[in-house]
Specification:
heterodimer; A: 182 residues; B: Helix Hairpins; MrpA_C/MbhD (chain A); transmembrane helix (chain A); membrane (chain A); Nuo/plastoQ_OxRdtase_6_NuoJ (chain A); cell membrane (chain A)
């Protein structure tokens, strides 16, 4: 379990650097390291499907975010009520951490999951669905409607992106339309 | 139990970034970090000591597999998080085109 702790601490350090660094491109690259460490943690936690999906999604996410940070930007200002804002934020996060750590005591201990629902899946999946990969048999057979809803959300998000970023139909007079592909 | 606490700390780093930063790209970075933390938490709940990956092979009959149900649901959540991140980035780029800045305190004219 030492490797799990090391990777978790690596993720936290990478996240803190991503939050605090000034340059946007460096922040995006730090988020990429956090995602790749998460994929390795999924491998340690015996979830190979999650690790594969996480690696693909992470690289796509990195490409999208780098595309967004290619624009020039003003350096962000930290003037104003710095002390008040930070104090309120840290106080809220402290209350949240306390309540969540109290709630964590009700969970089963790490390494001993409740297997009430999964017992039937693990014992019957090969007979009932014919798939040797239990995760695939769950998302494509037992909970296929869930996957259908996921596809619906995915295509709705694609429609939203097209409606937001496309340039046709938003032309003002005298404005030159730049060709830009997403 | 301390594994859960480290995961919560990671979530709180993302939450701090969402609440405190003014740059839109930084806020998106915070949302992505919080998503990672939640996915990691669900995968941690599913873990079992000495467990195997939930894949059957013909010569093995042992049933000490890790919990497969949270893994299946996290698989759905990862894909959806990619879609929402792409939508956020699209909206942020439109904001930059219209106002010329990523700073949320400078975006004050909220009329179309």
């Amino acid at each position: 379990m030492v490797d799990l702790y090391l990777l978790l601490i690596f993720m936290i350090i990478g996240a803190v650097i991503a939050v605090e660094v000034e340059d946007l491109l460096s922040a995006v690259v730090c988020v990429g390291t956090v995602g790749l460490a998460l994929s390795m943690i999924f491998l340690i936690l015996k979830a190979p499907d999650l690790a594969i999906t996480q690696i693909v999604v992470e690289i796509l996410c990195l490409i999208i975010l780098i595309r967004a940070t290619l624009k020039k930007d003003l350096p962000f200002s930290t003037s104003g009520r710095w002390l008040l804002n930070t104090g309120i934020t840290v106080g809220f996060i402290g209350i949240f951490l306390y309540v969540a750590s109290q709630a964590l005591k009700e969970l089963p201990a790490f390494g001993h999951p409740l297997m009430k629902v999964s017992e039937t899946y693990l014992t019957d999946a090969v007979k009932q669905t014919g798939a040797t990969n239990i995760v695939a048999s769950i998302i494509l057979d037992y909970r296929a409607y869930d996957t259908l809803g996921e596809a619906t959300v995915l295509f709705t998000a694609v429609i939203g992106i097209l409606a937001v970023v496309r340039r046709i139909g938003r032309k003002k007079q005298g404005e030159i339309i730049k060709e830009e592909d997403e | 139990m301390s594994v859960y606490l480290l995961c919560l700390v990671l979530f709180c780093v993302g939450l701090y970034c969402i609440l405190r930063k003014r740059n839109v790209i930084k806020i998106i970075v915070g949302v992505v970090i919080a998503e990672y933390a939640v996915n990691l938490f669900l995968a941690l709940v599913a873990y079992r000591f000495e467990g195997r990956a939930p894949i059957f092979s013909p010569d093995q009959k042992i049933l000490n597999m890790v919990d497969a149900l949270p893994q299946a649901l996290v698989l759905t959540a990862i894909v959806i998080s990619l879609a929402t991140t792409a939508l956020l980035v699209g909206i942020a780029m439109r904001i930059y085109e219209k106002y010329g800045t990523f700073d949320i305190t400078k975006i004050k004219e909220l009329k179309g």
